[in-house]
Amino acid sequence: MKAPFPSLTATYHNASYDAISPTRHELSVANKTIIVTGGGRGLGSEIAKAYAAAGASRIVLLGRTQNTLSQTAEQIEKEFGSVSVSTHTADIADEAAIGKAAEKVGKWDVLILNAGVLADPHPVEKSDPMDWWRIFEVQLGFHIFWRTNVKGAMVTARAFLPFRNHDASIIGVNANIITLPASNPIAMGASAYVCSKIAQMKLLEYISAENPDLFVVSVHPGVLDTDMLRSMGHHVQIDPSFLDDGKSSPACD
Q1: What range does the record give for the signal peptide (predicted)?
Q2: pTM higher than 0.85 for the full model?
């Protein structure tokens, strides 16, 4: 289909297709350990299922809500009986919790930095500074701050890097919206989210430069109809035909 916004690729997909099917032999991740942050719901859950379909031997799900983590784990174990699934309840920016999870998990092959957060869309002039900054620092309780899109990615990568196997990979789930001009209707009012995701992409660049044995990539999906998107009410302004299928890989090939 034709891309609904300026695209870096000539062909735009918003549903999966045979060339990227996780069941293709050349895409096998047999005997690999896969870690997915934000793995209990939305895109994280579908990423975990795709790696299970690709033959992963062990999948590790990290997230804040044990109930959704358990649901995804049960679904994977039911459909892919040979896959071992473990869950770890922790916020990705909680250094102590993530450090303990990294020690328990041990050796790994692919780390998916998927967890993220959105803010309500507003022009900078009308944005609440605290709400804008919560994309970098998310307050969930008295004097407790969870730093998600930037610090969370850094804390998670830092904790797991020492346990990586040879030829390991880190994949950061970013957003296609950062490639759009700020004047684009889809991007209007999303300065907090976009700025945080650009910072995350630069962080991955540093991780790659500092660890030449790693394969590091930032992927940029289109718009997904997830709980996170619905929470900001922005989805009602988007043509449903533009939405990515949650079971697809990133939209652009």
Answers
A1: none
A2: no
